[in-house]
Write a structure and sequence with these properties.
4 copies of one chain form a homotetramer. By secondary structure, chain A is an alpha/beta fold. Chain A has 2 domains: about 1-240, Type I PLP-dependent aspartate aminotransferase-like (Major domain) (Aspartate Aminotransferase, domain 2), CATH 3.40.640.10; about 250-350, Aspartate Aminotransferase, domain 1. Chain A has 13 helices and 11 strands. Chain A has helices spanning about 1-15, 20-30, 45-55, 70-75, 80-85, 100-110, 140-150, 165-170, 215-225, 230-240, 250-275, 300-310, 340-350, and strands at about 40-45, 60-65, 90, 120-130, 155-160, 185-190, 200-205, 285, 290-300, 315-320, 325-330. A 7-stranded mixed beta sheet of chain A has the order 1-7-6-5-4-2-3, sandwiched between helices. A 4-stranded antiparallel beta sheet of chain A has the order 8-9-11-10. In chain A, a hairpin with a 6-residue loop joins strand 10 (about 315-320) and strand 11 (about 325-330). In chain A, helix 1 crosses helix 10, helix 2 (about 20-30) packs parallel to helix 10 and helix 12 (about 300-310) packs antiparallel against helix 13. Chain A starts with a helix and ends with a helix. The interface of A and C includes residues 119, 218, 220, 221 and 222 of A.
């Protein structure tokens, strides 16, 4: 893939100079989102994207709402607090990694009377992850409802879209329908999970809506060491990722489709393998909707054996949501092969047979 | 009381010069806590005390555990994050404002394997409030257990003691028994609630245990504008508060005793007034153990009337812990008079009679 | 003086409740500055005042210009960076503690083309000290010119007025003429140097001009632990300081007049004492214009003896501006007595005589 | 070059897996510096390298000394303050971009008595740039003297080595001689200027000497979004840059040699072209020692014409150090061609002839 990527770069962008690469990448991103006026800032990591986007709209006195499982809360060592100067994350609950609308409503309702109180943070931003940390999906209607609720209380909405292409493909929806048309104000758009080396982008649909607009974003990026002197490298990756990947299908789409299809195939075959052992093997901790599988297994010797078997084919121990059970995560990618799927199924089958 | 305070100052500390005031105040605090080597830093507010104490032990990469109702989390607009450079507060549950030991154990246990992970904050400090935000008390044994648990995982323990004298009096325990002898490493000791104008103190029992020890505390206080050029003023207040307040009883003790006694009296008489209307009037949201009363009332027209009546005698609407109910807080002080207690009881009685 | 102060408090403000104290203090400050719409925030220290004022107008991406000798640069351990999230101080030169207008012009001119560059801080604020750290004064015309220059480049102007009353008295000018009528947008107004225990105030003439206006100031003050639960104490001090101090003259004025007069008297008598030893004794490092005297002495055995002699009457070693020379600072206050002046003169005389 | 680079990558590191790439890069860096125990952290930008390195040794209460022209001070929008939580940069003077040893000595001497004062920042780090911002060089002896001075006062020494290879080649010295053997404690080692796409590295020679050692560095990098999920990409670039670039000469060396040689050639030919116009054309603002040329020209119509001519061949207007003169910077690179050199000389010649 890296080779294809490299080969693609000259082909699709060869005649561009440094600035033209960046302009082409920004244009391609705007095109994908059908947002000709969007501000686009390429970055090298999802953490940088999330933190720069959120900090453009939230300062030390603001509060940011997010799901309790969200990446910005659990996996970034306080990047949002770092970039924003201390904005706290207010965790919300909700099944399968999705923010519960009524819990959000309650939280915003409780906070509203305190908006003028000097001791309270002002709720300023809602951050949603699509697909979620649990691999599940918000429908367009669900997004609209959450965004409307947030906007009613004066919050902006950020979307952590590190794996957004997987959602677009799974829901058969356009990038604009799942973002600004639903009310999302800014997106961290990831391409690294989809096959590039390291290229993400902050996309702000209404620069005026954020604190400092594009100017502050660029300045903050500079200050954080995220402005590359040779940014054409980032841009070229984004160009290639959004360009035709063969047969008239953009690379991002074919990559995401393959990853999702592998996951669906793997899920079906794992279920089939376990069918005869019902109740005694695994169940899904979250429904399989994109390219992540979360298997919930009992904390028993048999469960331990299954966990070990899945570990040999790339399964990672994960937080269990239920007492007395454990969890393993499997992730498929654009380049997951039929053999890898078969190997995972085989490993489970062997363990089930007690081998 | 302010007058008494002012009169006391010259009497108890008159012959001291500027530095001698501060030395006398520090000595008095060390004496109270039976901690001759403690580091003592006077401040003008509880927020400053809490933030300076916690920031001396927790930096941007550390995590601070506290009860979800704690003052540092709900009422300080992110002071801990400000002073520490971004240390996040990890809220814990627990009945009646007290941190639940098993929930803490679970949280520390989950976090332990991540100690070396770059994406995770390192659990570094547990902050306990005594008496709690719900006016309840940790016993010495409960404190010991929580501190031992925290120390087992390498955390320091901070105590928010803005109302500590009320706890000392209610539990009949010494200041040392409820702090360092129980494992507490640092205390924010408040005197303002007890009658001074504005005087609190950071007390660190083992300066060496904290990041920078006293030096960093003083420097941070300076940087935050909390070093007063005429600090003898703060010191004089602390001197007076810890000195004999009449009859051989220190002022802090008699003040706290009066506040607690008034609260107990008020609670008893409110209960008696409501006895005939049982089930139809109020119940305690939290047990009354110090000088704060939390009345839980139904969300009914009758409940509303009671809330209004209590509002006329100083009751404040408070967060209810139960759906379908509302809460009112009443606080007694060192100078709450018999008449004020009677007025509160009378207001409730009248409302109960439907007047 | 502290006693007088305390006695004054009940007399002048006795019938006010908590809020009325604060309202009265704010009204008195607005009255002094002839600025009925000014935002007034009492604080306990000059550092807090300066940092809160500046941080209301300057964030991490802004630059603050100030004299290289300014208190915010040399004596506050980075308070401005702390409160603003990192705004750097850009030091300017200038004789006798006064910002050199042409150096400022050059700096702003150089910075202007970089305003849009992501790598550069945006010049946002000029902070002037009146009287300066060298005890000297900006005339009204000088202030106007500096403010006009700053405003031309889009900067706001802050005045560190920790000793502002000494300037008002020395220049015979009104508080408004030396602040907003000259173009100053916000002042840290000090009263502690003038005799109160610990009371300063942020005064913002055009709240709308600053980033967050009064709301952000109050929130930031809360977050920093500078909101006192019993703020009437601060307010009462400010009331007393701005009220009639006897004979129809406000206390601030009589205090400042006495301090300045003592300084002038002391300067005259020190010069007289040294007259016979011309060239061999001291000269002024800065002209004596308010209540601070800076004596420049040679780095010789004789100079050392004079420094020692001045040390016995309160003189402090200070940074010398000239190689081969040393400096001693003497400060007079509202309560400097005739005896103290005579003692200082006597000490110098004895040392000059070689005793 | 980028193509060569890419081609090199698989060749030199092809058989390594992800972790092996990183291990190989770290080993190659340690080898270059003859420092088998050094901590190596790859990053994507020089700003990130500098800020991460410095912040590992300097917190909010520390002060960092650097040349007034240094990149960390003028070109990074406060990155050091951002990463360190507010450490101020203390600018030092010195000819040709080199820190003046006696000015440093004076600054450290003045600061020493304040080390215990709460109002002062503690001098903690000296940052030197090699080659300097003026393209000049510290000799090994000069570095040793500056480092010894810094160490005497308890400071650590950081080297901004964004163009370090140009210095190694110009001085004919080893990487260890110009760093840890001279007393440098940590280096930001750049490869981007030398031809890679975006790859720099923090190199800490004595991890124990810095505040948090490698652990804090990695955590801070994570928090800032500088940990790449696919870090093998960075590693591969570093591998290729440090590996044999042909003929047994490492790529970094041949790249730097070519850049320096082009600069020397260009300087010689520009001087020759201007010989006939002596006094009327240009002089060097700084001696040409590596690959940067700074031409000082008069602020006259003729000078303006020369500036315009140089602008057509890549010259950039630069800060002039002298009143009445202006400056243009020319930089050569590893891939500067003979034609480009000739074009620059031709442009100057034509302008001198008044064409």
């Amino acid at each position: 893939m890296a080779a294809l990527q490299q080969a693609n770069v000259p082909r699709s962008c060869a005649s561009y100079g440094a600035d033209e690469y960046s302009a082409a990448a920004a244009a391609a991103v705007r095109d994908l989102f059908d947002a000709p006026d969007a501000y686009v800032l390429p970055t090298v990591s999802g953490i940088a994207s999330d933190a720069l986007a959120i900090a453009s709209a939230a300062g030390p006195l603001d509060a940011v709402f997010c799901h309790r499982l969200s990446h910005i809360r659990l996996w970034q060592c306080g990047a949002v607090a770092f970039y924003s100067g201390g904005a706290p994350l207010q965790p919300l609950g909700g099944e399968d990694g999705k923010v519960c609308a009524s819990e959000l409503a309650l939280a915003l309702q409780s906070a509203a009377p305190l908006a003028a109180a000097p001791y309270a943070h002002r709720p300023s931003l809602l951050s949603l992850t699509q697909p979620t940390e649990a691999g599940t999906l918000y429908t367009g209607a669900e997004l609209k409802a959450l965004c409307a609720l947030a906007h009613d209380y004066g919050l902006l909405v950020h979307m952590d879209g590190a794996r957004l292409p997987n959602a677009l493909v799974a829901l058969g929806a356009s990038a604009s329908d799942l973002t600004w048309r639903a009310g999302v104000d800014m997106v961290s758009f990831g391409t690294t999970k989809g096959g590039t080396l390291a290229a993400e982008a902050v996309v702000v649909f209404e620069p005026a809506a954020s604190l400092g607009g594009g100017a502050a974003d660029a300045q903050l990026a500079k200050r954080a060491g995220h402005e590359l002197s040779k940014s054409r490298f980032l841009a070229a990756q984004i160009c290639a990722y959004l360009a035709d990947g063969g047969g008239g299908v953009p690379l991002w789409r074919s990559s995401a489709e393959r990853a999702n299809a592998s996951a669906a195939d793997l899920a079906r075959r794992l279920e089939a393998a376990a069918a005869g052992y019902d109740g005694d093997s695994f169940r899904w901790q979250h429904p399989v909707q994109t390219n992540q599988l979360f298997l919930s297994l009992p904390c028993t010797p048999r469960g331990d054996a299954l966990v070990r078997a899945l570990g040999t084919v790339g399964g990672t121990p994960w937080d269990s949501e239920e007492e007395g059970r454990q969890c393993v995560r499997l992730v498929t990618a654009f380049d997951t092969s039929e053999e890898e799927v078969a190997a995972a199924v085989g490993a489970l089958e062997a363990a089930l047979r007690g081998e």
